[in-house]
Amino acid sequence: MHVSTDLVFDGEKGSPYVEEDAPAPLSDYGRDKADAERDVADACPGAVIVRTSLIYGGPEPGPQERLAADPSAAFFVDEIRCPVQVGDLAAALLEVAETDYAGLLHVAGADAISRHELASLLSGRPVRAASLADSDEVRPRDCSLSIERASDLLGTRLRGAPEVLEDP
């Protein structure tokens, strides 16, 4: 099993990405992950390549929680992702490992939300807003992932960040 990222996409599709969509990364990180996906698929055709999104909710604050706690940080209202709670992701990965599934699989949160909304949910307070459109940063606008295939395959329920963080 190889874990990859939603950042293999350019964010311009206009609807959630499915497993058959071709990668078109904008960043070095996304390009490295897309290259790794190809290498894994070539070396081991029976492998599962799981694409996921922003991971949050571990026992210790992770990168998302640490950034959300920074009062000077600003978060894009127009950068959309499907954040996934680490326990949901771990349960899904363990379940996938028990199957004979091979190929790409999107395992992310059920809701497409902005980085700004995620930071507000994580911090429990209003956070500074920014616009990707007004910045010089080259980042995908909407890397939301369709989790329809994972939902059909797995018993693990992949919850959205609002559900997890508004009703812990």
The main sheet comes to: 3 strands, parallel
Query: Mind telling me the C-alpha Rg?
Result: 16 Å
- Could you name the ranges where pLDDT drops below 50 across 5 or more consecutive residues? none
Distance between the termini: 30 Å
Instruction: Please report which band the strand proportion falls in: under 5%, 5-15%, 15-25%, 25-35%, 35-45% or over 45%.
Output: 15-25%
Order of helices and strands: EHEEHEEEHEEHEHH
Tally of contiguous helical segments: 6
Can you identify the CATH superfamily?
A: NAD(P)-binding Rossmann-like Domain
Shape: globular
| Count of discrete structural domains | 1
Q: Regarding CATH, which class?
A: Alpha Beta
User: Mean pLDDT, nearest integer?
Assistant: 95
Helix content: 25-40%
CATH topology: Rossmann fold
CATH architectural designation: 3-Layer(aba) Sandwich
- Which strands sit side by side, in order, in the main sheet? 1-2-7
Number of strands: 9
Structural class based on helices, strands and sheet pairing: alpha/beta
